[in-house]
UniProtKB/TrEMBL annotation:
Name of this protein: Glycerate kinase
Lineage, top ranks: Bacteria, Bacillati, Bacillota, Clostridia, Lachnospirales
Record-stated family: Belongs to the glycerate kinase type-1 family.
Keywords, comma-separated and alphabetical: Kinase, Transferase
The species this protein was found in: Holtiella tumoricola
GO biological process, one term: organic acid phosphorylation
Length: 374
């Protein structure tokens, strides 16, 4: 065996994707130091997405002053990759950790996200990858759109920058300037959830409480998103009420599509496209991937499935290392997965196993490699 690709998801609560990559690579080289190992940390759109892309593609960080969650000035970072591509994670300036102890989705904004995008465009980016996740906002992405030139008007005919609590005050939208600035710019939005914009499974009800919303506030926020959809429908003739993923990041999914002309895409599909996974598979003998737990939900298009399907098309076998193996996974073998191994060596509680995760992964990886290299 001459070359392998290591492309795991994070093991939630234990190891980041980058840590898993390092551990797997070390174990592989202990068994055979001559094997070429290509490591690709996986970004899911949330905090750490920029870092993952930069490690995978050796890009550079760009720092700039932007607007924070409560309209305060702050410094944030995005990534610049080759081929005029920039990676922006909304968590950099609208993330939940930035408002710890003072959470209020009625007041927080995504304006800074739009500023990061604008800075990247002004520095020559022709393609933007925007990661949704880990947000403290519920403004439907209007803040980001406003930073890029969109105008929102109230009943008095005045322009303003709406937040979650004032979406209800929007009566007219003008995105002409915004679309002009984005002419010739491709925008891909990484979105790994399919929640609708509003309703019991929507942005406010499902994610609002973790952002500081009480029961009454959730209702206000949900009504605001319903109103936003109506305004979008009337002004732009776009129906985001039926858009899967519209509720991602406080409705940012809807805003990315309606205002910025983006398309929503699963995080793993974005990663595979950007790193040129199909090309990397040429001459590759084996792919290693993994996640914290594999079960029936893994069949819905997460990392393991995304990797396996593309590897299968090239005839490359896929080995999966996981923390736990759940029920209903049998169909995954038809999608390109060759074998699945649990790294846990003893039936102990997760609270104990998590402290041994790196050691256990290393041990299992070495054993798998011993069988392969025999």
């Amino acid at each position: 065996m001459k070359r392998v690709i290591v492309i795991p998801d994070s093991f939630k609560g234990t190891m980041s994707s980058s840590e898993v990559c390092r551990t797997m690579e070390s174990a592989i080289h202990e068994i055979n130091s001559a094997i070429e190992v290509i490591t690709i940390p996986v970004a899911d759109g949330g905090e750490g997405s920029v870092e993952a892309f930069l490690k995978a593609l050796r890009g550079e960080k760009v720092y700039c002053k932007v607007t924070g969650p409560f309209f305060e000035e702050m410094e944030a970072v995005y990534g610049r990759l080759e081929q005029d591509t920039a990676v922006v994670e909304m968590a950099a300036c609208s993330g939940l950790p930035l408002v710890e102890g003072r959470e209020d989705p009625m007041l927080t904004t995504t304006y800074g996200v739009g500023e990061l995008m604008l800075d990247a465009i002004e520095k020559g980016a022709k393609k933007l990858i925007v990661g949704l996740g880990g947000s403290c906002t519920n403004d439907g992405g209007v803040g980001a759109a406003a930073a890029l030139g969109a105008r929102f008007y109230n009943t008095k005919g005045e322009t303003f920058i709406p937040t979650g609590g004032t979406l209800k005050d929007i009566v007219r939208i003008d995105i002409e300037t915004c679309r002009e600035k984005l002419k010739g710019i491709e925008i891909i939005t990484m979105c790994d959830i399919d929640n609708p914009l509003y309703g019991k499974q929507g942005a406010a009800y499902i994610f609002g409480p973790q952002k500081g919303a009480d029961e009454k506030m959730v209702e206000v926020l949900d009504n605001g998103l319903r109103h936003l959809q109506e305004v979008i429908q009337n002004a732009l003739k776009i129906d985001v009420s039926v858009l899967k993923g519209a509720g991602a990041a406080g409705g940012m999914g809807a805003g990315m599509v309606a205002f910025l002309g983006s398309k929503l895409q699963m995080g793993i599909e974005t990663v595979l496209d950007v790193v040129g996974f199909e090309e990397l598979l040429e001459g590759t003998d084996l792919v290693f991937t993994g996640e914290g737990k594999i079960d029936a939900q893994s069949l819905s298009g997460k990392v393991v499935m995304g990797v396996a399907k593309r590897a299968k098309s090239k005839g490359v076998p896929v080995m999966v290392l996981v923390g736990a193996i759940g029920e209903g996974i049998e169909p995954i073998y038809d999608e390109g997965v060759t074998a699945i191994f649990s790294i846990n060596r003893a039936p102990i509680p997760f609270e104990e196993a998590r402290d041994q995760s790196v050691e256990n992964l290393y041990f299992m990886m070495k054993n798998v490699m011993k069988v392969i290299e025999r």
